[in-house]
Write a sequence for this structure.
């Protein structure tokens, strides 16, 4: 049993160098599955249909038995806000979309060529802004919500193999309640890792052959294959952990032309004011979540990802609410 527990904990990536950042959707889902796999808990809490950090009676349900499990609990505590929020949580505004009359393959072919033609600044630093909604459940089964404050994340990969991870409080999204939020610019974490200490979930080099991208992403997720939505989530994780070069990004764009389940959501302006086009998938949790991957129409670079709640059974957020986004400064 412990072998399976350890495998799933590691798949949730609690040892990532970005452990001060909000957990990914997949990490939240794996954690919730682990918590609820204990038979003693099943009668008290219904199995979630969505990623969630779960609380019961004001205390976090705990997994015991391994150091890795303790890190999962610690990571969850660190990203949770302890006070309850209003019944309907405030979430970032939806991005406005404009219809695009192109198929996914044709659009991606154009974007891939754009990426070939445009030279982006090279470097070994990843800069991103993140925001994610955490969900908690009280002793009566009522949903309460808290938000993780917006963060700027900077991960610097040095030539000697060391890594520095810097996390700074970012500006709130327009209309967000700023009471209790850390002042913008406050350093939340500043950590350095010697060569070999930074535990990236993407240890293998990123292929430059489009035919190898699908299996590469699936291995990182610990699966045989991925849905379109899971593909978006893994690409998002990749961009947050690996500085991609032109050949690697072109391979990803080319691979996306073959992924079933992707549709064109439309032209958008992302949360940093950049013009792009959004690809959409609704097959990761059908009827519950919609995943977006945003690609710049000026450079062909992948610049953002978002997850939107589209279900109807939650009371803490409205249907069509942004529950997670990442924008990369590239």
């Amino acid at each position: 049993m412990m072998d399976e527990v350890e495998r799933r904990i590691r798949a949730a990536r609690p040892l990532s160098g970005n452990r001060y950042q909000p957990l990914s959707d997949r990490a939240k889902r794996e954690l919730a599955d682990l918590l609820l796999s204990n038979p003693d808990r099943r009668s008290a809490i219904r199995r979630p249909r969505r990623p969630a950090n779960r609380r019961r009676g004001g205390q976090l349900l705990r997994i015991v038995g391994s150091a890795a499990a303790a890190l999962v609990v610690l990571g969850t505590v660190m990203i949770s806000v302890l006070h309850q929020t209003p019944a309907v949580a405030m979430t970032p505004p939806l991005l406005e979309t404009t219809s695009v009359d192109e198929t996914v393959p044709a659009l991606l072919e154009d974007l891939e060529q754009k990426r070939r033609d445009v030279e982006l600044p090279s470097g070994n630093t990843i800069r991103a802004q993140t925001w994610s909604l955490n969900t908690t459940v009280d002793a009566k089964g009522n949903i309460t919500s808290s938000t993780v404050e917006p963060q700027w994340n900077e991960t610097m990969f040095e030539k000697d193999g060391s890594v520095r991870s810097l996390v700074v409080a970012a500006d709130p999204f327009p209309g967000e309640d700023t009471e209790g939020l850390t002042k913008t610019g406050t350093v939340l974490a500043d950590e350095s890792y010697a060569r070999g200490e930074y535990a990236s979930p993407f240890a293998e080099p990123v292929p430059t052959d489009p035919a190898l991208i699908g299996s590469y992403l699936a291995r990182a997720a610990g699966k045989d294959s991925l849905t379109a939505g899971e593909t978006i989530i893994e690409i998002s994780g990749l961009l947050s952990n690996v500085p991609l070069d032109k050949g690697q990004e072109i391979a990803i764009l080319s691979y996306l032309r073959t992924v079933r389940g992707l549709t064109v959501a439309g032209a958008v302006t992302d949360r940093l004011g950049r013009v792009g086009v959004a690809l959409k998938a609704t097959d990761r949790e059908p009827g519950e979540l919609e995943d977006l991957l945003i690609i710049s129409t000026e450079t062909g670079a992948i610049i953002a990802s978002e997850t939107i709640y589209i279900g109807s059974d939650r009371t803490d957020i409205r249907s069509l609410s942004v529950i997670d986004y990442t924008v990369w400064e590239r």
Observations:
- The chain has a mean pLDDT of 79.
- The chain has one domain: 2-328.
- Residues 2-328 form one domain.
- The chain has eight helices and eleven strands.
